[in-house]
Specification:
The complex is a heterodimer of chains A (616) and B (279).
Chain A: H1 2-19, H2 22-28, H3 30-47, H4 49-52, H5 84-120, H6 122-137, H7 140-151, H8 155-181, H9 185-192, H10 197-233, H11 244-253, H12 260-311, H13 318-324, E1 338-351, E2 354-367, E3 371-375, H14 382-390, E4 398-406, E5 409-410, H15 416-422, E6 427-430, H16 444-456, H17 460-473, H18 479-483, H19 492-504, E7 510-514, H20 522-539, E8 542-547, H21 550-556, E9 559-564, E10 567-573, H22 574-579, H23 584-592, H24 609-614
Chain B: E1 6-15, E2 25-35, E3 40-44, H1 51-58, E4 66-71, E5 74-75, H2 81-87, E6 91-94, H3 108-118, H4 123-136, H5 153-165, E7 171-175, H6 183-200, E8 203-208, H7 211-217, E9 220-225, E10 228-234, H8 235-240, H9 245-253, H10 259-278
The chains are: A alpha/beta (616), B alpha/beta (279).
Transmembrane segments (chain A): 31-52, 96-121, 141-165, 213-236, 256-280
Membrane topology (chain A): Multi-pass membrane protein; Peripheral membrane protein
Protein name (chain A): ABC transporter
Amino acid sequence: MTQALEPATAAPKSASAQRQGLGSRIASSPMAAISLGVLAFIVLAVILAPLLTRFDPSVSDIGQALLGPSPEHWLGTDSAGRDVFSRIVYGGRITLGGAALALIVAMAIGVTTGLFAGYFGGALDSSVDWVSNLLIALPNIMILLAVRAAWGSNVWLSMTVFGVLMAPGFHRLVRAIVSGVRNELYVDAARVSGLSLTRILGRHVLVAIRAPIIIYAALAGVVVIGVQSGLDFLGLGDVTVPSWGTMLNEALVNLYIAPGLMLWPGIALGVVNAALIIFGNSLRDALEDRPRVRRRSTSSAKQSAKKNDAVTPAAPEPAAFAGGQSPVPGFDEVPDGSVLAVRGLRVGYPSADGIKDVVNGVSLGVRRGEILGLVGESGSGKTQTAWAILGLLPSGGRVTGGTIEIAGQSLPGLSKGAMRSMLGKKVAYIPQEPMSNLDPSFKIGFQLVEPLRKQLGLSAKDAKAKALAMLDRVGIADPQRTFDSYPHQISGGMAQRVLIAGAVACDPDVLIADEPTTALDVTVQAEVLDLLRELQKEKDMAVVMVTHNFGVVADLCDRVAVMKLGQIVEQNTVEVLFANPQHPYTRMLLEAGLEDKTPRTRLLRPVDEPLQEAAL
Amino acid sequence: MSAPLLQVSNLVTEYPVKGWRKPPVRVLKGINLDVKAGETVGLVGESGSGKTTIGRAVLGLAPVSEGSITFNGQDISHLSGAARRQVSRDIQVVFQDPYTSLNPAMTIADILSEPLIVQGKGKAEARAKVAGLLERVHLPADAGTRLPREFSGGQRQRVAIARALAMEPKLIVCDEPVSALDLSTQARVLDLFLEIQEQTGVAYLFISHDLAVVRHLSHRVCVLYRGEVMEMGDAAEVTENPKNDYTRRLLMASPIADPVRQRQRRQERLAMAATASTA
């Protein structure tokens, strides 16, 4: 019961993490907050320039040229006797203002086109993409020089042009994200709800692209400031108004007389650019942090919540619930002569409060020529049990207790090399998703031949002959053609047959099938089940069939073990278990099925379900 | 007999194929079906049968290349913009995947009140209605302040159902609404669908690959195969004594959760396949 209640305490915590808006995310990352503070301080100083300075930045006084820092001129004066501090503060108006203008133009164009091209796709997308590629191909600096040659050195004009040249970056970024979001079902649902286009784009799409735009803009800002200051430094800017680039240009002329003049505009540029880069990077880190946390907590919340869902009907009240939940005697029986024998298996994953067991003392055994169904709902630990037997637990997970024996060989504690030689020959695996278990970049033949050569030491020719024979055996009409195909060229049912061929090729003693037909159509499922039955008889294998489908169990299995919350609650032959289920959970599962129900009547007894679900 | 609520006539949907002058791929090849007010019509078929495309065409999310879709006497095959939004009051949807069909950034209350506000309801009125909707799908009243990720698959599907109910539609297209759910959760969501239909008299176009689910919920069943209707008729008739060969294959391939009867069904299926291959 404690496990079932856990989400009640876990959910609010994760909820507050998720509910953090962009603003509080920035605040919670010290680097982002500090760099943003520095930027804000500089921008404020530049805006309030008249209040902070006592000298006009353009008024020269030859008598006061090249003075060092003094109480009157805090940073000294330049070669024309102008106050350096005033010029730095006023110069920021040109440098930062120009950069801001370029970014605004780039974003106004790029985000808008990206939004529409990504959302609508088609001809609009292709034509905008063409223009965007053209802009990327243009040499930016040449264009800026041409603009200067034609219309003179106006910083606002050149930054507007530069903004247009920067737009493709924003366009591509936004387009890529939007075309992904566009296929999300919640956008379809919004359309069906009768939302107008502007509302869909504003409420559902823009939210997804907000943060990436900010990050990209911060980094693009560095580029803009660099280019703008570079032009001014080369003397191509307007020399009548101060900017940090112009100041560097003048400092260069007097480098030998007053090297200190280089320092101040250099520091200004360095601090702004560093702050922008750190802000962009730390914001990205703060946001990238989120999917990791989210994935972990959703999957656990999902699992625990489904557990919650699952226990509800069988749980009229906690007292009866606790009493009725003890496993049915015989639940931990391991038959004599089992070729696979698991006793007291525990699998744990690290969590916030120590190791958390997802498999909690599972015992089961399968003899040669026998098929055991391991059945349960999501979160029951059935797949974790299968992975533990194969020694293929995902990172973090490990066997924390119990023993696993395959054909007399004890598994936990076996070296990686020894385990590898067991896989395929002693124990083999058929996965749930046939397509994602074939490597798309290699031909099917190669993927079948390689393990045969490694595990059985066959020559290339023998391995190919055996692979073709296996493909023929699993009912593939044209083995040679499939052998030469890439995975995307065959159907899901064919792919599953290929994986079955690969799994049984080395004559394993034990075959673990993890929901092997769940991803398949029902007519294909029937054929694959027939195939598994034949192969199992032919090779006299012990099979563990992990499934959530009682129909599949009834069709294929000799015995069945029902799992719930990491434990087996009942184990028996299929005939007895289906005819006379003992455990309330087994009964509830069988009752939830649609067999022999009067159509259009309630499936479950009405229970105070809202109260139960509210426990989440 | 009154005119049906939804009439799909000779519906053809084609999608363009990439490449120079390649013919478009024809996903639906002339579909005829109808749904009466308050009725559940089950659409069953395997992957590639076009069942989801029919639902999307009715919702205006898939193109109608030929034929027509009539709703409540109005041709809705090619509506766009404001006219389509007007129809959306009456035709709603519950999608298969409860994990991507709710915007992860919005609270449940925002998700439920958005369509109401769009249709011109005041904020206060919408909020009040949200409480009623949550109650109707048996979610706790405080669910509104939470985000989708705090809920399990079954509960999210309840939220999706509540969103569909918000506009008090006449028809809900249910696209595999229970196939991502565990068995016991599926049973409770199916019960909810029945309960809502009893209370509101809404009609369902219920799409599923699972013959048992469709049989349980539907008045009439339509069997699809590769974009064509194989058989349509009374649910009990189609799912127990199918006339069509494909429907029979589909029925025989669905395993029964009973080892004794399943052995019998398997033998019948193998015998059927043997006669089919010799014939």
